[in-house]
Amino acid sequence: MTAxxxxxxxxxxxxxKSAEFLAAYTRAAAQLAAxxxxxxxxxxxxxxxFEHYVLRITWTSTEDHLEGFRKSELFPDxxxxxxxxxxxxxxxxxxKPTTVRGAGASVPTLYAWAGGAEAFAGLTSVFYDKVLKDDxxxxxxxxxxxxxxxxxxxxxxxxxxxxxxxxxTQGGHGHMVAKHMGRGIxxxxxxxxxxxxxxxxxxxxxxxxxxxxxxxxxxxxxxTRLAVYFSGPDAVAPPEQPVxxxxxxxxxxxxx
Length: 256
Ligand code: HEM
Hints:
This protein has two domains: 5-95, Alpha-Beta Plaits (2-Layer Sandwich); 110-231, Globin-like. The protein contains ten helices and four strands. It has helices spanning 18-34, 62-69, 75-82, 110-114, 116-132, 148-159, 165-170, 172-180, 187-203, 210-231; strands at 5-12, 38-45, 52-59, 89-95. This is ABM domain-containing protein. It holds the Pfam family ABM. InterPro entries: ABM_dom (IPR007138), Dimeric_a/b-barrel (IPR011008), Globin-like_sf (IPR009050), Globin/Proto (IPR012292), Hemoglobin_trunc (IPR001486).
């Protein structure tokens, strides 16, 4: 369960009022957009019956909606726009999302886009060949488990939307974090890791499109900075949590 609350407001608006209703909500939406308590909103119109509309507003919590937004200086302007339509409301209630949620397959995962398990196995094989020849990194990996490259490939595959292979065979997020603890990774070593994995991505033939590589690098930046933190003297092991999931972010794949 997330803390977020989804408010659904169902309207039945007579056809002759629909243009002014939409215009009023277009203006009222400015107050939602300005509210730190509002996560997102969407007004949808029924395709089968044009008089039906559903407004979905995700609030940071029910209390934030009722005590935050409704008592904020944004609310009077919001209410002034929508007041004429209050009598047309058929339902206005708060809902809590359940665990049944997810994304469909209309956008391929980064894992599928990269080429699946084989692509990540190729990447980490090239990468650790480089690591073991590298002056800054080789000392850190002096006692490398021969299975290491394969484990990291499973990890990356899971992070990028592939099967839960690392969680199911290696022990999940906590196990991966523990592998870095006490290793005292320095910033120059982290940066070298970042550089070498990008060289390896080129050599292993991972896709070179801007969208894939920017998402890939964003994860590598995030993950390596966490690795440095967890390897340091002040690290506190996190509570057990699922392997992070990385997605395309602001630039989804170009599917011309
Ligand atoms: C996105 C960044 C990173 C990822 C995804 C990653 C992934 C992993 C994983 C999955 C393991 C455990 C392997 C296993 O279960 O056998 C591991 C271990 C390790 N990682 Fe990382 N790592 C990252 C960053 C770094 C960096 C920046 C360094 C050092 C410069 C580093 C050094 C190590 C070392 C020394 C081990 C232990 C190897 C051994 O077992 O001997 N990692 N890493």
